[in-house]
Amino acid sequence: MGGEGTYAADTGAFHYIAPSAVPDAVKKVAPATVGIIGKPLGSSSASDNRYNLAHGTGVIVQSDGLIITNAHVVKDMAQLIVVTADGKQYAGTTTHMDEESDLALVKIEAVGLQTAVFADSSELEVGETVVAIGTPISFALRNSVSVGVVSGMDRSLHSTYRLIQTDAAINPGNSGGALVNLKGEVVGINSLKLSAAGIDGLGFAIPSDTVMYVLQHFLAYGHVKHPGLGMDVEESWAAIVGLPTDEPLQIARIHPGTSAEAAGISEGDVLYSIGNQNVQSIVDLNEYLKQYLPGDKVTLTLQSGGDIVQKEITLVETSLN
Q: Signal peptide location in the record (predicted)?
């Protein structure tokens, strides 16, 4: 019969994966996967060495040639060439970029392209089989496939938002490619791999819910309107090192001219919650604020001068890095 499966001892359930599941998933998303190649700027030889090239991967999100990829793939890259799965080449232009989320849009002049289907990444489970598609190491290896599992969810690793951890091989050049489930739906955009002696099978992807959040802002506003509190906050030592903690955030600095200053919030105050949501880390804060826009009002619960108080502030537009 072939195939493989996983057994969940706690429920007694056996999950069977048919032998064609991975190839079927690849067939659905491969036509929407592109390779991106160009000349890196800032190198003394970039202008006179035709072999001095950098490359990555992208995913088609609109049939008229709109492609999402990583910001670090196309930042400081000139003369973009996009190669679709059928081998056709197009000149590409970076139209939008958001380094906080590490996402960008590239546009090519084309019509009738197959687009990827995005899943709800909140439904992804640890242990679920996923497939990474991209352009590892060499541009000649376009649409290479690697298979692994979701190793962890809600990871934060020098990132603004949470990441998906996977052991599917994500090598240089895979950045910007799709991480897909066995339905062929995109659950994340591959972003990075940790490379060091003794480290293997440790890759990360931007969840599809963050991808769609950024894409919607790109199309609606031309850039991502990151909302902020108008203050800098600090995490507890436990949160910084990754330990489970209920310790709240502490106010480190109030930005002048903001409603946080007008509300009388002070450095050293302790921030417990926004609305009804407790926040223990900066990534928690950034994730929660994705539902708001600058100009929206939120209520903060703080400890100030030994008293628990609530303050209403107006969110400001901010750079999160």
A: none
